[in-house]
UniProtKB/TrEMBL annotation:
Name of the protein in question: Secretion protein HlyD
Family recorded in the similarity comment: Belongs to the membrane fusion protein (MFP) (TC 8.A.1) family.
Keyword Coiled coil on entry: yes
Keywords on record: Coiled coil
Originating species: Pseudomonas syringae pv. japonica str. M301072
Coiled coil regions in record: 68-95
Gene3D superfamilies: 2.40.30.170, 2.40.420.20, 2.40.50.100, Helix hairpin bin
Gene Ontology cellular component list: efflux pump complex
């Protein structure tokens, strides 16, 4: 790497030079291929002349047909070798143009992976470029929340919660993260937030279900899906026992979930360890423990 022309965070235009490689080796390789073409041209010309002379001799019976066939085969081989040499020379000539790496689109440099003086190989990434266009927010959704493509959401930039930015679901992964068991989703930020800085922290309010449906907010960890739909463990009675209540998920935020159906405001629900409980199991309720009230 001879020279780095951009820095991380810099905005670039399509065709703008990003990095410059040492052109000496590329130029020498191109010259070598040109010399190989010249040698192949000479061989092809000589074998073609030999084939033309011996064609008349075989007609006159001065040489055998098998001898002529060998000469013609050499001419055909030389012609093919010339075509191959010309193709390799064209590749080497194009490679000399790669000594200057150009941006393939408008965008922002998000990372530079090499420094001047470093030896790089063909195909090695040297710079990462985020193409200009609508920004996307990446979130990880629980198994109980599976919006459909094109669903809408409300986004807010960290530190600017008063401004609501419309967002649209573009991608939802079908493979869960092996550690968190969540699914990556990508929301396109629309409207005035198209120029949001890369790497910004964004919170999303994802609405699922019919508008106007009465909802209750519960800790997101209280929501559990054992395979038959989402629900919560409600604590009631004396002694305190847990009862399974199925709910409908309406939306999620950073630390809470909005649900409806099967739950009344003020009821206590288990907020941690929901996967360890069984219906009717007796529990001990402690102040500041693992319970929370729906609101």
């Amino acid at each position: 790497m001879l020279e780095r022309l951009v820095d991380t965070g810099q905005t670039v235009k399509r065709g703008e030079p990003l990095m410059r490689l040492d052109p000496v080796d590329l130029g020498l390789q191109s010259q070598a291929q040109q010399q190989a073409v010249a040698a192949a041209v000479a061989r092809a010309r000589q074998t073609a002349d030999d084939e033309a002379r011996n064609r008349d001799l075989v007609v006159a019976g001065a040489i055998s047909a098998s001898a002529y066939d060998r000469i013609k085969s050499l001419a055909d081989t030389a012609k093919a070798e010339l075509s191959a040499a010309q193709a390799q020379a064209s590749v080497a000539r194009n490679a000399t143009g790669y000594a200057v790496l150009l941006a393939d689109a408008d965008g922002v440099v998000v990372d530079t992976l090499v420094e001047p003086g470093q030896v790089v190989s063909a195909g090695q990434p040297v710079v990462r470029l985020a193409k200009a266009g609508p920004r996307e927010a990446i979130v990880h959704l629980p198994e109980t929340l599976r919006p459909t493509m094109g669903d809408r959401a409300e986004a807010r930039l960290y530190g600017d919660g008063a401004r609501v930015i419309p967002a649209r679901l573009r991608l939802l992964s079908d493979a869960a993260d092996p550690l968190t068991r969540t699914f990556e989703a990508r929301y396109v930020l629309e409207g005035s937030n198209i120029s949001a800085p890369l790497g910004s922290t964004v919170s999303l309010d994802i609405a699922v279900g019919k508008a106007g449906r009465q909802s209750l907010a519960i800790p997101i960890a209280a929501l559990h899906d054992p395979g038959r739909g989402p629900g919560v463990w409600v604590i009631a009675g004396t002694p305190a026992k847990v009862t399974w209540r199925a709910v409908q998920l309406l939306g999620v935020s950073d630390d809470s979930a909005n649900v409806s159906g099967g739950l009344e405001a003020g009821e206590q629900v288990v907020a941690l360890g929901t996967h360890l409980l069984h219906d009717g199991e007796e529990v001990l309720v402690q102040q500041g423990g693992i319970t929370a009230a729906a609101r």
